[in-house]
């Protein structure tokens, strides 16, 4: 089954990624994969030029939504440039200011470095849009911007793009867990494990481990070597090694010019806080009580996108910092929509603002959820699972 080249869309179970088009494809349209659509991203194969008429959207199915949302997929080049500039320029300026403040006050320098984590999170969202081919129409331009930003975010772009593609093509599928998602067991699977297996899973799902240890390990160690893609071709090794080399060159220069204090009080605090924030948002986007998990024979990518992804309704400043990634159900339904157009979708389709809606306050409860209850179709805490077993 050939993969689609529509951003990250397509059947990523294939190890191949190429730029070939199927004969007869419309301009701007990726070739559609052959066979069943279960492994295809919801907006795959829909030309961005299509303006789908909107009907009474209270009765739209999940697959209908992917066609309805196709009209939002066109990026606006001037807006994309603006969003990149207003994120990258302050990031560099704050970095420089924190470096300079080290000569005056380490505490102030540290505060500036922590504040700069907000812009680093936003740069990651822009890199994320590049991976989906939604920032600009030119796929190669998106890729090279993404690769440069990947050095800043410590994330080898091509490696991340591949694993994120798998996430989009398998989110909510109980039979395809393990790549690009949070480790999640069903109640039955957990109960069948011995005490060691249960203890290990409880450790993994512990908030301190999940939101402190895992982000540090992921961005500072796991991203350095794409072991999980060692059989998937040379480009992923090249992506990781080239990114590592660029990071090493930059950090060596920083230490040479400014000493180890710049690394310890400017670089590391910014990176670590941004990594923690990124982990939290990725968690809340899929790990909420009324999410959706299905086995392969019942799983549908459109339904999983709409019902297995949250609408994280955040205060305005946090929406800006996170590049509207909280509108995650829409993003999974139509991943080619630029991040700055996601609020437009919510404004035009009020029903989507009520679908899988989670407020900032409500989201903190999600950290207490650990196991998927297949019978009642919701995530439970360990305590709730014990009550069921009693």
Model description:
The protein is globular, with a radius of gyration of 21 Å. Helices cover 54% and strands 4% of the residues. Residues 1-56 have low confidence and may be disordered. The strands form two sheets. The protein has a three-stranded mixed sheet. The chain is mainly alpha-helical and 390 residues long. It starts with 61 loop residues before the first helix and ends with a helix. Helix 4 runs antiparallel to helix 5 and helix 5 crosses helix 10. Strand 4 and strand 5 form a beta hairpin. The chain is built from 18 helices and five strands.
Short characterization:
The protein has 390 residues and is mainly α. The chain has helices spanning 62-68, 77-101, 106-115, 117-131, 139-152, 157-170, 187-192, 195-204, 207-220, 234-258, 260-286, 301-307, 316-321, 328-333, 342-348, 350-354, 360-363, 382-389, and strands spanning 185-186, 311-313, 357-359, 371-373, 378-380. The relative contact order is 0.14.
């Amino acid at each position: 089954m050939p993969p689609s080249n529509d951003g990250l869309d397509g059947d990523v179970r294939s190890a191949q990624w190429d730029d070939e088009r199927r004969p007869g494809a419309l301009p701007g349209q990726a070739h559609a994969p052959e066979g069943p659509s279960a492994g295809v991203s919801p907006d795959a194969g829909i030309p961005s030029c299509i303006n789908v008429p909107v009907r009474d959207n209270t009765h739209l199915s999940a697959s209908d939504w992917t066609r309805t949302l196709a009209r939002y997929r066109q990026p606006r080049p001037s807006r994309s440039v603006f969003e990149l500039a207003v994120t990258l320029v302050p990031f560099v300026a704050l970095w420089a200011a924190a470096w300079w403040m080290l000569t005056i006050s380490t505490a102030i320098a540290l505060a500036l470095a922590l504040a700069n984590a907000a812009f680093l999170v936003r740069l990651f969202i822009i890199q994320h849009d590049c991976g989906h081919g939604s920032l600009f129409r030119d796929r190669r331009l998106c890729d090279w911007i993404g690769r440069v930003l990947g050095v800043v975010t410590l994330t080898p772009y091509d490696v991340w793009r591949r694993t994120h593609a798998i996430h989009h093509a398998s989110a909510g599928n109980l039979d395809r867990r393990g790549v690009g998602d949070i480790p999640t067991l069903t109640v039955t699977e957990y109960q069948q494990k011995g005490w060691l297996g249960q203890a290990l899973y409880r450790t993994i799902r512990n908030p301190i481990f999940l939101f402190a240890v895992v982000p540090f390990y992921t961005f500072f160690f796991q991203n350095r070597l794409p072991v999980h893609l060692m059989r998937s071709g040379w480009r992923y090794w090249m992506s990781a090694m080239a990114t590592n080399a660029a990071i090493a060159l930059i950090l060596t220069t920083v230490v040479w010019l400014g000493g180890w204090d710049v690394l310890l009080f400017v670089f590391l605090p910014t990176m670590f806080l941004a990594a923690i924030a990124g982990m939290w948002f990725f968690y809340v986007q899929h790990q909420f009580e009324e999410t959706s998990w299905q086995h392969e024979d019942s799983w549908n990518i459109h339904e999983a996108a709409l019902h297995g992804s949250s609408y994280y309704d955040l205060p305005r400043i946090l929406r800006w910092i996170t590049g509207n990634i909280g509108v995650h159900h829409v993003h999974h339904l139509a991943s080619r929509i630029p991040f700055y157009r996601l609020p437009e979708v919510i404004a035009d389709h009020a029903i989507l603002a009520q679908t899988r809606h989670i407020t900032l306050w409500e989201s903190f409860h999600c950290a207490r959820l650990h196991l998927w209850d297949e019978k009642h179709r919701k995530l439970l805490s360990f305590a709730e699972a014990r009550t069921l077993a009693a």
